[in-house]
Amino acid sequence: MRELVYYVAVSLDGYIAGPNGEFDAFLVEGDHMVGINERFADTIPTDYATALGIDQSGGGFDTVLMGADTYAVGLPEAPSPYRHLDQYVFTHRKPEPVDGVTFTDRDPVELVRELKSRSGKDIWLCGGGSLATQLIGEIDRLVLKRQPLLFGDGISLFAPGTYAPGRFERVSNREFETGVSFTEYVRA
Fold first, then answer.
1. Which top CATH class is 4-27+60-187?
2. 3-state secondary structure the chain
3. Percent of the chain with pLDDT over 90
4. Domain extents for the chain?
5. CA nearest 40: which of 23, 57, 60, 68?
6. pLDDT of res. 95
7. Over the stretch 154-167, which tens digit does the pLDDT of each residue have?
8. pLDDT tens digits, one per residue of 75-123
9. What is the spatial distance between Cα 141 and Cα 124, in angstroms, rounded to a whole number?
10. Contacts 24+ apart (CB under 8 A), 131-136
């Protein structure tokens, strides 16, 4: 069965973006980028990967889920940022149609369960924190790209939710000279 994988960069103090969605402080150069290209090339926006000559055909994802604010980060430069994946954007607004992007106001849990029941590769939960909290019970795997930064404020890895402890087990950890680490967990 397909897994829902929350793969995301996060600061040491637990933020995936600044208070206004800023993410420019995250390190985008260094040896950790080789790690991304090796295993997670399919999480790089299509145009950027093409420009760098990165092959995205062997990735583990065929679907990406985003909240409207996460999707808006790339606009207007890339209205279809991950054309190599099936793209779902959760929003209550009625945006103009974009080729390759499905805008939906469906219950995220319902849609994820439907997607998991289909054949295919894993499903990447790109962000943000509110969507991650709505899908917390459906997340099978967490891959945290922990960055050696403190934000002090911003969008949390998970938005505040209902107290319901859920255990994950660490399955791998990879450290890089940049101070970035990739830590992967699976639901226990």
1. alpha beta
2. CCCEEEEEEEECCCEEECCCCCCCCCCCCCCHHHHHHHHCHHHCCHHHHHHHCCCCCCCCEEEEEEEHHHHHCCCCCCCCCCCCCEEEEECCCCCCCECCEEEECCCHHHHHHHHHHCCCCEEEEEECHHHHHHCHHHCCEEEEEEECCCCCCCEECCCCCCCCCCCEEEEEEEECCCCCEEEEEEEC
3. 81
4. 4-27+60-187
5. 60
6. 85
7. 999 999 988 889 99
8. 667 789 999 999 999 999 988 889 999 999 999 999 999 999 999 999 9
9. 10
10. 131/65, 131/66, 131/67, 131/70, 131/90, 132/6, 132/8, 132/157, 132/158, 132/159, 133/158, 133/159, 133/160, 133/161, 134/108, 134/109, 135/4, 135/6, 135/65, 135/108, 135/109, 136/161, 136/164, 136/166
pLDDT for 112 equals 98
